[in-house]
Amino acid sequence: MHVLILGGTAEARALAGLLHGTPGIRVTSSLAGRVASPRLPAGEVRIGGFGGAEGLAEWLREHAVDAVIDATHPFAERISFNAAGAAATAHVPLLALRRPGWVPVEGDDWRDVASLEEAARALDGLGDRVFLTTGRLGLATFADCPQWFLVRSVDAPDTPMPARTELLLARGPFDLPAERDLIARHRIDVLVTKDSGGAATSPKLTAAREAGIPVVVVRRPPVPEGVPVATTPEGAAAWAATAARPGASRVR
Ligand code: NAP
Q1: What share of the chain has pLDDT > 70, as a percent?
Q2: pLDDT tens, residue by residue, 42-100
Q3: Considering the domain 2-100+221-241 in this protein, what is its CATH number?
Q4: Do domains 2-100+221-241 and 110-218 have the same CATH topology?
Q5: 110-218: what fold?
Q6: Which of 23, 50, 67, 214 could bond 109 through an S-S bridge, CB–CB 3.0 to 4.6 Å?
């Protein structure tokens, strides 16, 4: 049985580790190729886009894929949409693996927004010093903002940035003492984050709560309609083990 994992997340790597070496299962992980030196999962790896939903459907057929697990980042909306289309076209079962989103606790001052554009507008009146952790891809959205930004990303952005920006190249996980220190040292007034979920980058939320600063949280796009969801790599691995059996439910 050949399982394709659409990856780019820690959960995708964990899933590949669980499936790799399982008798009867061949696993291939696919990465977009955005990060210069990605952490590679166990098993076979292919890198680069497929050429839209049609290209992915073709790839599924050519490589005799029996099941697809979309374990991409919750904000990687296009590939998830393409995966739903391709799986339906190729009649291959599809599961989405999504870590749970973050939930505010007492003492949090979160401002929910639906997009990066809305996040940029929500900064008005929240202070001059912004800690921006939404990644380099959407950075251009903030390019015209007048505030000072501490921008943290894995690789250097190649898009327009706000005029007053300090760049911090770093890859998680990040721990609480370091996040506290960043917020204090840079006298941060407001944090901006996507609702990525997971423990690797959540200490910034605790540090923001402790510092009493607001957090602008960009909420997730929905999983494509009709696609079942697992929230853990173990749950996704269990699904994969049964997905290609005769009579298993197929997502179209
Ligand atoms: P996206 O907007 O959903 O996808 C854009 C295009 O990139 C897709 O149409 C596809 O190209 C290609 N692509 C994306 N993921 C791929 C994969 N796993 N394997 C092969 N091709 C892929 O995605 P994105 O937001 O740019 O994210 C790119 C990758 O970075 C994702 O795999 C995601 O898991 C990871 N990531 C994203 C974020 C985020 O905040 N968006 C954060 C951390 C990690 P074709 O149409 O040519 O197939």
Answers
A1: 96
A2: 999 999 999 999 999 999 999 999 999 999 999 999 999 999 999 999 999 999 999 99
A3: 3.40.50.720
A4: yes
A5: Rossmann fold (3.40.50)
A6: 214
* Environment class of 220 (CB within 10 Å of its CB; exposed 0-12, middle 13-18, buried 19+): middle
pTM for the predicted model, two decimal places = 0.89
Contact 130, 149 (CB under 8 A): yes
The pLDDT value recorded for residue 251 is: 39
Q: Is 28 in the pocket of ligand 1 (CB under 6 A)?
A: no
Gap between the Cα atoms of 108 and 127, Å rounded: 17
Q: DSSP secondary-structure letter at 141?
A: G
Query: Is the minimum distance from the CB of 6 to ligand 1 under 6 angstroms?
Result: yes
Q: Where are the domains of the chain?
A: 2-100+221-241, 110-218
User: Which atom of ligand 1 lies nearest, measured to the CA of 30?
Assistant: 19
Atom of ligand 1 nearest to the CA of 80: 3
